[in-house]
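User: Hello, can you help with two protein structures?

Assistant: Certainly.
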Amino acid sequence: MLRLRVSNHFRHPGQLPVRILAMARQEPMEVHRHEFAELAIVTAGAGEHLTEQGSYPVAAGDVFFIPPELPHGYARTQGLGLTNVLFLPSHLPEPGDELRAMPGWRALFELEPKYRDMHGAAGHLRLPPEELARTMALVRALDNECREYRPGGTTLVTAVFQQLLVMLARSYVPNAAEAGRRLLAVEKVIDHIDTRCTDELSLDTLARMAGMSLSTFKRAFRGVTGTSPIDYVMQARLGRACHLLRTSETSITDAALEAGFNDSNYFARVFRQRMGVTPRAWRREVTRRR
């Protein structure tokens, strides 16, 4: 598989960790990977975005994030215009708590790339024409600063890049594709399960949290995660139990109860089904490997 390298796309990565690569007409491109991150903005036309698991359509206004080393490509392009914002995450400031707390930031840069191939149609951002125009004006300013690189350029490029991230994060919630809206709703439930897996968690409660009917919620949850809500809760509780068995002297019965299982016999049965061994044998093996 073709691998695009930092050395071929960044002249001075230590000074300028951002580069703009505009393609007025993107031809079909085989699935490839790159060492750097990429924010792809579709400026015109249409085509298919390829991943190792399949493909989905993209059109003008679509914005999606490609993390380093994630394989992707393009096919069936029809006047496809792309502007790629290439950047080196390790050379840029870590996103602050305020930015990370924005639902749009989490969806665009964390959730959508993670679940892209599970839910079949990407939950990418889709900018309306006026917002696409504002975004591209900022990208052009970023490109000009990268090309000229005057004193203070690194500071200014970093600041304008951060401005671009905030602009896109703000745009995600009102402009996400349908799959993106489902993604945000299901992510809210996933976060609740991950932090409260030991609580009583009924399907009705989780569906209300997502703002969906029960049947719609179950379909959406499986579409995003590839599994059912009940199965996800069970896996979260097993993970909690494994953590207790691995890091404490808690008895197997107490570990089961603390992880949200009301019956230690049921816990042992589920554990063996999913882990292939009994809780006691699993703990013994983990202890032996220390």
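That covers the first. Now for the second protein you mentioned:
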Amino acid sequence: MTGLCPMMKLESRNIMNETFYDTIARFYEAENQDFTDDLPLYEEFAEGKRGPILDVGCGTGRVNLYLAQVGYHTIGVDNSPEMLAFARRKRDALQLDAQLVEADILSFRDGRYPLILLPFNTLMHFHEQQIIVLKHLAGLLADDGLMVIDLPNAGELLATENDEAVRFERTFFEPISGNTVMQQSVSTIDRAEQILLVNWIYDEILPDKTVKRTVAPLKLRLISAPEIRLLMQLSELDIVELYGDYGRGPFMDGCERMIVVARKLR
């Protein structure tokens, strides 16, 4: 079992984001269950690793349950009970070797891990505590371990206009209610603070043809390539690879992602 430390001053709290995932958990599970683009990359990094793999911000288990399915022991940590409820149901149904822990990541202190994953945009949730989180995770990383962080290319996002337009994202089927959901978003960027504020809008079409709207705001902090290099250095981590996509293409101007692979400084 993992140990939890009750030191409240270390919690990575963000009031706006605290209830976001509990609010949209069933939507998140439905809209993201088919997203698999990054899974082969994580499986490649997991190959040959002995010991449990730590998935930070595991949510409904998209990444860590996949790795458990292909034979790895995983530990997923998340602070959303609603997201973890989905993960636990899937884990139990598949009888997987996957531990799921409801905790703030800064309270999670046991073990040394050969692979620590911060999948799709996870690090962006921590805002001014990004350096604190990275230093904490560096302490959990095995001496020969790897940390993989998946972020968007901040340069591309910072170049977009703040037009406050409502953008259609996708339509998907939500199996618990049996309803069709139309997802939209309105985004604004504070370039001085590198803050991306997204209002996610879920319009759920009910059986009587009326629409139930759920609006959930999410605040994320963008990280540029020069900044992530400095953050990793201050966390005593060394970047060994920087990719621009899940196929390990080079990070360059115009690429959508910034995938950071790091190890402890030697």
